[in-house]
Design goal:
Layout lengths: L1 H21 L6 H19 L8 H21 L5 H26 L5 H28 L12 H22 L3 H19 L7 H23 L2 H24 L4 H6 L5 H5 L12 H9 L3 E6 L1 H6 L2 H13 L3 E6 L9 H9 L6 E3 H4 L8 E5 L8 H4 L18 E6 L19 E5 L2 H15 L1
Parallel strand pairs: 1-2, 1-4, 2-3, 4-5, 5-6
Helix pairs in contact: 1-2, 1-9, 4-5, 4-8, 5-6, 5-7, 5-8, 6-7, 8-9, 12-18, 14-18
Length: 455
């Protein structure tokens, strides 16, 4: 029986790695998800063969309930709400790892300094990932609309983290007691809340990646505690990929990961400096349609405004109309556009936009000066020129899409307020920029109608 389990875990590891590799490209991402899914199913089935395993009825009930809820949510949740679902599912993984540690401590199954240390680390990281992910969900869902901070935030975080670590060390040194365990888990959960609560929308893609890495590490540690190779492999793969993705997201914003945690972007620095000055010029749907219809090259920059309006299908319909009239249309994607890594790529793929029309920052930036029109749909920080020259701005030094260098810029925005991060955009006040106000869904629909009328 054991040889069957060992071979199955080897196959699971191969499927996880191949699946992750395939997910690195939009062309093979669907295949990668299927491979990883098969690996997860196999790992779950093999669990029932583990010697000494009991409570098969409860295991089946948990699988049916959990799988049923996930299936329904997966079918019903809109693409615009995908970041929230990712945050919740990531939190569940961290919470599960912490719950495993709590149960093993309660049963007295954790023995040996190494195993106890890994159990404590998994519990700490998993608890932080769980509560932090819940806060991320509340922010993404709009239920927590402001950055919440305590006086002396970094000092408070440091002291709370130090006390939690000392409690963990006490558990390792002298064994767990009920009171110490409860206090340890409580403080770890609070730590997750206070770490994520001050972080604004501009840093959210980095935060989601970081929490994902935390969950992977926690699962890997608890897999060692349970002597479960599948959990160890899955945790290592998720943790390593999450750390690499976090580094890539942070690099795309030219921010250190420590900067995201200890000096989050909230928009306060920009607000205190007064922000850009000038007048925003409004443009109607007819004029916007004419500017693009008679252009030679149009570059579309999607952002969260497109996502929240669910306008990706309309945007692609407009792009096809322009191409039929001989216009060269391309899509420019910033690595941190949206609320999670790859958010815009997922939405455009859902709408059917061919992969060869989607370009990342390094590929497209040299083409903006050659573009007649840059159409920005709900993006803010990723096209803000202050990142290049204003050292007082929180986003100074962040690589941006050079949309402002196009001959004409059209910005579709619901209103005149600042973006999700709270930082006003200098681009909106430039002479070559016109504002197309309204929900992206309706605004682009009106543009489509006018493009058709132009013939």
């Amino acid at each position: 029986m054991q040889w069957i389990i060992d071979i199955s875990y080897f196959v699971v590891a191969a499927l996880f790695i191949l699946g992750l590799k395939a997910m690195s490209s939009p062309v093979t991402a669907r295949k990668g998800i299927n491979w990883a899914g098969v690996g997860m199913i196999l790992a779950t089935m093999v669990t029932f063969l583990t010697p000494g395993m009991r409570n098969y009825g409860l295991m089946l009930l948990a699988i049916i309930l959990g799988g049923g809820v996930a299936w329904v949510l997966g079918k019903r949740v809109k693409m615009t709400d995908m970041p929230q679902m990712v945050a919740v599912y990531n939190g569940m993984g961290g919470g599960a790892a912490a719950a495993i540690a709590a149960l093993e401590f309660a049963r007295g199954e954790v023995t040996g300094a190494v195993v106890t240390t890994l159990a404590v680390l998994g519990a700490l990281i998993g608890s932080v990932a769980f509560s932090g992910s819940i806060v991320a969900f509340l922010k993404l869902q709009g239920l927590m609309k402001k950055a919440w901070k305590v006086p002396g935030q970094n000092l408070f975080n440091g002291l709370l983290g130090l006390i939690t670590v000392l409690l963990g060390a006490l558990i390792i040194a002298s064994g767990p007691s009920t009171l110490i365990l409860l206090l340890f888990f409580l403080l770890a959960l609070v730590l997750g809340v206070v770490l994520v609560a001050p972080i604004g929308g501009a840093d959210m893609p980095v935060v989601i990646s970081l929490l994902n890495a935390f969950t992977g590490l926690a699962v890997g540690f608890e897999g060692y505690v349970l002597h479960n190779p599948a959990l160890i492999i899955a945790g290592i793969v998720v943790g390593a990929s999450g750390i690499l993705l976090t580094q890539l997201m942070a690099k795309a914003m030219n921010r250190a990961i420590t900067g995201v945690i200890f000096t989050p972007i909230t928009g306060e620095a920009q607000a205190s400096a007064g922000g850009p000055q000038g007048t925003m010029k409004e443009v109607g749907a007819m004029d916007a349609a004419a500017m693009m219809r008679f252009a030679q090259k149009v570059i579309i920059v999607p952002g969260y405004g497109m996502a929240v309006a669910g306008a990706q299908h309309k945007v692609w319909e407009m792009a096809k109309l322009l191409e039929e009239q001989g216009v060269d249309v391309r899509f420019a994607i910033h690595p941190v556009a949206g609320r999670m890594p790859g958010h815009m790529n997922v939405l455009l793929a859902e709408a059917g936009v061919p992969y060869d029309k989607i370009f990342d920052l390094d590929e497209i930036n040299s083409e903006f000066p050659l573009a007649d029109v840059a159409l920005i749909i709900g993006a803010n920080d990723v096209v803000n020129p202050v990142a290049r020259h204003d050292k007082s701005s929180p986003i100074y030094g962040m690589p941006i899409l050079d949309a402002d260098r196009a001959a004409q810029v059209i910005v579709n925005k619901r209103g005149k307020g600042a973006g999700y991060s709270g930082i006003e955009n200098e681009l909106f006040f430039q002479d070559n920029t016109s504002m197309l106000y309204g929900s992206a869904q309706q605004a682009i629909a009106d543009v489509i109608t006018n493009i058709k009328s132009l013939g």
